[in-house]
Amino acid sequence: MILRLPYGRGFITADLRGLHCHELRPEVLHHAPAAEVLAEAAVDRPVEGPPLSKLARGAKRVTVLVPDATRKSALPDVLPPVLARLGQAGVAPGAITLLVACGTHPPADERSLAATLGVVPPGARVIQHDARDGSSLVEVGTLTTGEPVRLHRAAVQADLLVAISTVQHHYFAGFGGGPKLVFPGVAGVAEIQANHRKVIDLEADPPRRHPSCEPGVLEGNPVAEEIAVTARLCWPHFALLLVAGADGKPAWSAGGPLEVVYPLACERARRWFEVEAGPFERIVVSAGGFPTDHTLIQAHKALDAACRFATPDAEVLFLAACDGGAGSPAMEPFLADPRVSAIVTALAEDYVQYGHTTLRLVEKTGRFRVSAKTELAADLVARLGMRAEANVAAVLDRWRDEDPHGTVGLIAGAVVYPRRRG
């Protein structure tokens, strides 16, 4: 087996001949309708409630919430049917705001934004949410612990709020997309940190990661449960949800009230992206190429998934370009001293979400032998407990010599997770 594994904006060729490979891949449809067709079906024939073209009649200010460039959401194909239905309802382009739910991610440059959105009708406004821009935020309520919640005024003050997102597993919030597009998608940085710090169980001695903050887990997950409650402070009037197939393109869709379609999307994601396999003593994992391997923050999610299929002390070959670096200046202090005990102590005192990202990463490199093919600086790779590996072929040759009859786990495309019981 010779594969071209996604790496940055290109590929790395991996010669896996002579190794017994078990590819970990989602159990999805192989011939899904085109993304535009899926979107049209969702907005015209919602699971519940009126079609979007009818719901939008009389709306004076419409805001369409969309994911940012870190998500593969096929917006150039999916957005046109939504905008067309708004036009059919009499909504002029000048009354439409496209609000990019960046959360705490930095805004995209003009080129990346255009590639993410596709063609935008003249007159429509495009805003990239900035969680640190207090002037753009409106207080709408409080978190479950009493902290104020501020959301972007373009979402709060809309007559009609439409949300478009892809639902997929999230490594500590259960699932991405859905209510997460509202909160933390267009929230203030302080309340986002307050929510995300719930991933640390401060009642444990010493503090530890909360055991229910896991991919695919919503019930009992304090982060996910608060997201669901807080998003209702600015609940979308219509949600178009998608689930991607093995190639990263939308393969399932549903439209209608978010509380109705979100559980359906989560169930579909579980059915397709949770598999039974392993454990493996050796695993090859590609972080999926751009944009999902552009930064360490995004790329480590693939490593997190792969390690769930690994035996103790397994060897993992991790391919992630990370040519965008770590991904946030807020991560730098944790990268300077990436010891588990130091990070947990620091997060218990002052939670920073990318400190938690670093924690998840070094927990894995402490348990498994991770060789990384990456553009990150070699000293940073070593500090994080990984071995920088320039020659992928040399690693595979060594595996052939050491255990020619062993089975190698392989994640070469969409990330999957072990099937949960119960």
Please identify, by name, the CATH architecture of the largest domain: 3-Layer(aba) Sandwich
List how many beta strands DSSP finds.
Answer: 22
The percent range for strand residues is 25-35%
CATH C-level class of the largest domain: Alpha Beta
How many individual helices?
14
Classify the oligomer: single chain
Shape: globular
In CATH, what is the homologous superfamily of the largest domain? LarA, N-terminal domain
Helix content: 25-40%
Q: Give the helix/strand class.
A: alpha/beta
Structural features, described:
This protein has helices at 35-44, 52-55, 75-88, 110-117, 153-156, 189-196, 222-231, 258-273, 296-307, 332-336, 340-349, 353-367, 378-383, 392-402; strands at 2-7, 10-15, 20-23, 62-67, 96-101, 125-128, 137-142, 148-152, 160-166, 168-170, 174-176, 200-201, 208-209, 238-244, 250-256, 274-275, 280-286, 310-319, 369-373, 387-388, 407-411, 417-418. It is globular, with a radius of gyration of 21 Å. With 422 residues, the chain is of the alpha/beta class. It is 32% helix and 25% strand. Strand 10 (168-170) and strand 11 (174-176) form a beta hairpin. Strands 3-21-17-18-19-20 form a six-stranded parallel beta sheet, with helices on both faces. The two termini are 36 Å apart. The model has no long low-confidence stretch (mean pLDDT 93). The chain has two domains: 2-24 and 277-418, 2-enoyl-CoA Hydratase, Chain A, domain 1, CATH 3.90.226; 35-272, 3-Layer(aba) Sandwich (Rossmann fold).
